[in-house]
Amino acid sequence: MVTRDVVFPPGRQALYEKNRYSPAIRSNGFLFVSGQVGSREDGSPEPELGAQVRRAFDNLNAILKAAGCSFDDVVDVTVFVVNPEANFETIWRIVPEYWGAAPHPTLTGIGVTWLYGFQFEIKVIAKLPESGAA
């Protein structure tokens, strides 16, 4: 059996253990990050869409930092959006605050009908810096 090299951000390990998944796994020089939503410390959603998106990115960045990398190391992004026709423009106005300069990572956007009470989720794959590759 393969041992998983799990990365936990500070202060949220209990939430991940309760929900029975790993926030991120290091493997073969890459970091595979589970979908991050705009959840508060207790797991509840931020009520407003813009705050949810910012919190999702903050949660993502905490995981990236715990693994020794940043959004600049992200090579692939998947976003899930509830009601994209209504929500996309609001979300995409916030993204540049976190995205950084070109060249940008690859992107797949998926419209969904349900995200467990959330409206936005982001999952990424990042290339670990050479010193952090496990």
UniProtKB/TrEMBL annotation:
Name of the protein described by the UniProt record: Enamine deaminase RidA (YjgF/YER057c/UK114 family)
InterPro entries attached to this UniProt entry: RutC-like_sf, YjgF/YER057c/UK114
Domain of life according to the entry: Bacteria
A Pfam family: Ribonuc_L-PSP
